[in-house]
Amino acid sequence: MKIKVYLNDWFYNAGIVGFLRILEANDDEFAIKRNNYIEFDTESLRKFHKYYFKYFFQKYNVAENVENRTKNSFDYLENNIEVILENKDKEKERKDKIKSNKKYIKDTIKKQLDKIKKIDENTYEEMKEQYERIEKSSTKHIEQYILWTTKLFECYKNIDILRRAARTHV
Questions:
Q1: Could you tell me the residue ranges of all domains in the chain?
Q2: What percent of the chain has pLDDT over 70?
Q3: Listing from the earlier edge strand, what are the strands of the sheet with 32-33?
């Protein structure tokens, strides 16, 4: 059965825009856009619930966001760890940022470890070993620091993928 959804007040229009974005993100544009309405066959809606969750899992991917922020913190450390600024205020600011970036990295990894421990004890033990290496190492060994953290995030991503798969098959 074909349905036409006409533009209306702004709440309605926002819903139509969201609906179309979800379809576009999933490369399935079964809705035909007209001048003041969209038209689609109700049979096409059978897949929409999958599109909906896929869209929002991609848009609000927590594991990826945490990984990106951690990588940015590493980039800052890598680019500023050996730099010494002559301006005392800027040098103090640089040291404070280094300290806060290190703290963010350690806190984030610790938080992810705690989540993983609830799911997979073996992966947790492997990652805990990497975390302890990071904890003991000095910031001067930034390449090794990055390598260990990358291993941690690879394990975390695998756990995150398993969680999502379990949720979508329930």
A1: 2-58, 61-168
A2: 77
A3: 2-6, 37-41, 32-33
Q: Are 147 and 134 in contact (CB under 8 A)?
A: no
Query: Would you say 142 and 78 are in contact if contact means Cβ atoms under 8 Å apart?
Result: yes
Query: Are 66 and 55 in contact, with CB atoms under 8 Å apart?
Result: no
> What is the SS3 string spanning the chain?
CEEEEECCCHHHHHHHHHHHHHHHHCCCCCCEECCCEEEEEHHHHHHHHHHHHHHHHHHCCHHHHHHHHHHHHHHHHHHHCCCCCCCHHHHHHHHHHHHHHHHHHHHHHHHHHHHHHHHCHHHHHHHHHHHHHHHHCCCCCHHHHHHHHHHHHHHHHHHHHHHHHHHHCC
For residues 153 and 112, give the distance between their C-alpha atoms in angstroms, rounded to a whole number: 9
79-103 per-position pLDDT tens digit: 887 888 888 898 899 889 988 988 8
Output the pTM of the full model. Answer: 0.53
How does residue 27 score in pLDDT terms, banded at 50, 70 and 90? confident
Expressed in angstroms, the distance from the first to the final Cα of the chain is 30
